[in-house]
Write a sequence for this structure.
């Protein structure tokens, strides 16, 4: 009788472990050729996204153009805010797209919409439209990129989670984020040539128009590649759309009451807050090296992307060999190492910190990767959408670091970042090792 009772008394942790092991087995049973196909689709589309990043990352390009169109500084910063707050749309998408058969079409539609809006902005800049119309379309572009970006991200993560073993997903991320940043460097060089007056026949506003217009074929190609993803057919029982309010609020409670996800969310927020000493570190070049920071802008960006490339390969290998938790831990250690570097190194070697920060920036990949590994397949999109919501809170931390500098100086900001990094490290170490490593 005791044995009978024991067999029926399964703890929630044991149920989770059994479910995750089953999910991993299901992914590993997909033919290698199909897993490899998804690897190629993800890596090549990610490279194209990096190539378009100088335009599609809503910061410098939109801000400088809106400023040049005569708007105030407040208006020039609105696209960034609009982009960040569209992470809320991820929760809606997770609810709207419960059907596995829709994952691929939704990703294709998201990339296609990005390509279309980029072409519309380019056309408005080529044509003699009013400045207000141009500014309005730039705002629309930011909103669309924010909404479609989070949509493509969570749906693609679910595709990877459903179709790849833990190890192969690690190799996929190594390839995508090891090679991908190189394309961002190429894209940045092209944008610099276009906007820097190095192409004589490209004058304002046609120079900006060419940059936005170039994203249309790039993202259109990404959409075409995404159409080749393999997505397994799910049972109808696993594809029912629940009521919205219980799904969101009940789902959020279910998400945060699980220890591994609570640790993941809090750790992600804190390590991101630590990483955002990056801006102050670049401003501190004046003290550390004795020159104006603008003289090393190119070197800083080069080291950042170079570090991201090397970190992409290394962290992908770690994820494949030792699992998702180890890779998330690696990004946290890179963050701490970068802060220790700026606290202890001076003169030209000080710039080496930016390579460490570049590798650490991949926390935006490997914390979500852990979320995928620790989620039941049917909850992957929902859990990721909740994790990405932290972006609205994380976005406040650069201003907080700026305030610390104003009150107590750069070193105080760096020490605050170091403390945050150590706290995040402790939280990540407390994460359970899920799912079990599979050779």
């Amino acid at each position: 009788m005791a044995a009978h009772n024991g067999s029926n008394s399964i703890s929630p942790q044991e149920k989770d472990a059994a479910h995750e092991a089953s999910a991993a087995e299901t992914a590993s049973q997909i033919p290698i050729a199909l897993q490899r196909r998804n690897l190629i689709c993800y890596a090549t589309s990610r490279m194209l996204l990096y190539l378009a990043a100088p335009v599609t990352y809503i910061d410098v390009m939109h801000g400088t153009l809106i400023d040049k169109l005569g708007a105030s500084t407040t208006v020039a910063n609105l696209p960034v805010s609009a982009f960040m707050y569209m992470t809320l749309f991820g929760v809606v998408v997770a609810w709207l797209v419960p059907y596995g058969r829709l994952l691929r079409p939704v990703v294709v539609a998201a990339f296609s919409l990005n390509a279309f809006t980029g072409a519309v902005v380019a056309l408005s800049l080529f044509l003699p439209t009013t400045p207000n119309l141009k500014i309005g379309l730039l705002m629309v572009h930011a909103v669309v990129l924010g909404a479609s970006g989070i949509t493509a991200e969570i749906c693609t993560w679910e595709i990877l989670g459903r179709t790849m073993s833990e190890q192969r997903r690690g190799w996929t991320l190594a390839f995508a984020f090891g090679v991908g940043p190189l394309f961002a460097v190429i894209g940045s060089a092209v944008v610099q040539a276009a906007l820097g007056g190095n192409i004589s026949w490209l004058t304002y506003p046609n120079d900006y128009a060419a940059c936005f217009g170039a994203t249309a074929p790039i993202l259109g190609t990404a959409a075409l590649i995404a159409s080749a993803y393999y997505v397994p057919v799910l049972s109808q029982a696993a594809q029912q759309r629940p009521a919205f309010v219980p799904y969101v609020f009940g789902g959020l409670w279910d998400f945060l009451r699980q220890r591994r996800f609570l640790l993941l969310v809090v750790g992600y927020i804190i390590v991101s807050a630590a990483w955002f000493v990056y801006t102050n570190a670049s401003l501190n070049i004046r003290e550390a090296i004795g020159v104006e920071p603008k003289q090393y802008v190119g070197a800083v960006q080069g080291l950042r992307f170079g570090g991201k490339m090397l970190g992409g390969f290394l962290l992908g290998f770690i994820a494949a060999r030792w699992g998702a938790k180890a890779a998330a831990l690696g990004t946290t250690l890179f963050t701490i190492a970068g802060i220790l570097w700026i606290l202890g190194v001076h003169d030209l070697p000080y710039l080496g910190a930016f390579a460490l920060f570049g590798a650490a920036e991949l926390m935006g990949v490997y914390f979500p990767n852990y979320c995928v590994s620790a989620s039941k397949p049917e909850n992957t999109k929902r859990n990721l959408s909740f994790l990405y919501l932290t972006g609205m809170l994380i976005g406040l931390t650069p201003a907080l670091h700026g305030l610390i500098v104003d009150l107590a100086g750069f070193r105080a900001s760096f020490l605050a970042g170091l403390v945050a990094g150590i706290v995040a490290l402790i939280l990540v170490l407390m994460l359970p090792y899920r799912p079990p490593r599979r050779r």
